[in-house]
Q: What sequence folds into this?
C-alpha cells in the first residue's frame, strides 16, 4: 500500500503570499493518477488538480501542481481569502486502491 | 448538470443496521466507477471502496473489507453503503464520489451523509 505524507501539517500565511504544499509518496506514483483536493469547513472536497498538473474545470490559474515519482507539489501563487482551507493529495493505484494524504491545513496568519 | 445526491443524516444505536444511498444524475451512471470516502470528526479523508455500477465489480480498502458492503442499482442510478451492525466508531461523514474516466481523480462529490451512532 502506498502511503502519502503531506507537509507541513499546518501552514500559516497571509493573503497575497505564495503557498507551497508538499506530498511525498512511499513509492513511485504514476503522475497520471495523482490529484489534489480542497476542502472547506462543512463542505465536500473539491477536485483542484488531476494528473499531477492539470487544473480541474473552473479552478483559477493561481493553483498549479507539479512533480513526479515520489514528490509532488501544490502551489498557490497569490493567496486569496477563500483559499484558506484543508488540502489533500490522493493517488490511484494499479489495483484500484485509492490513498489520501493526511492533509495540510492552510490558515490565515 | 452532473451531480451526486446522498441520503439524509442518520442517527442510530450500536448494533443497528444501516444503508445510505448516493444517486447520480446528468451522466451515464453505469459507466463510471463510484467510490465511498469516510471522514471522521475533525479528521482526514479515508477511502473505503469503489464500485462499477455497470457490472457491480467492487474493490474494498483493506481497512474496510468485511466491515461494510458497497452495492449499486444501475436501473435507478443509485449506489449504496451499508452496515449490518453499527459501532460508535462508525460515527462520521460519508461521501460518495465519481471517479473520472481519465486520470482517475474523484471529480464529482456528493454532499455527504452524516452518520451518528450513539446509545
A:
Amino acid at each position: 500500500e502506498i502511503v502519502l505524507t503531506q507537509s507541513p501539517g499546518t501552514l500559516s500565511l497571509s493573503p497575497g503570499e505564495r503557498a507551497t504544499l508538499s506530498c511525498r509518496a512511499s513509492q513511485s506514483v504514476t503522475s497520471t493518477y495523482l490529484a489534489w483536493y480542497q476542502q472547506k469547513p462543512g463542505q465536500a472536497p473539491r477536485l483542484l488538480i488531476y494528473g499531477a498538473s492539470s487544473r480541474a474545470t473552473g479552478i483559477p490559474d493561481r493553483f498549479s501542481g507539479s512533480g513526479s515519482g515520489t514528490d509532488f507539489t501544490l502551489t498557490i501563487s497569490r493567496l486569496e481569502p477563500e483559499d484558506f482551507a484543508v488540502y489533500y493529495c490522493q493517488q490511484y493505484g494499479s489495483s484500484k486502491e485509492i490513498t489520501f494524504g493526511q492533509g495540510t491545513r492552510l490558515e490565515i496568519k | 448538470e452532473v451531480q451526486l445526491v446522498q441520503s439524509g443524516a442518520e442517527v442510530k444505536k450500536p448494533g443497528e443496521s444501516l444503508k445510505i444511498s448516493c444517486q447520480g444524475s446528468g451522466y451515464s451512471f453505469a459507466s463510471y466507477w463510484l467510490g465511498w470516502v469516510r471522514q471522521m470528526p475533525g479528521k482526514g479523508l479515508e477511502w473505503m471502496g469503489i464500485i462499477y455500477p455497470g457490472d457491480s465489480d467492487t474493490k474494498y480498502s483493506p481497512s474496510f473489507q468485511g466491515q461494510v458492503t458497497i452495492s449499486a442499482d444501475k436501473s435507478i442510478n443509485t449506489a449504496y453503503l451499508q452496515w449490518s451492525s453499527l459501532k460508535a466508531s462508525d460515527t462520521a461523514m460519508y461521501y460518495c464520489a465519481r471517479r473520472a474516466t481519465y486520470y482517475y481523480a474523484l471529480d464529482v462529490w456528493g454532499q455527504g451523509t452524516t452518520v451518528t451512532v450513539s446509545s
Chain B touches chain A through 24 residues (CB under 8 Å). DSSP finds no helices and eleven strands in chain B. Chain B has a mean pLDDT of 97.
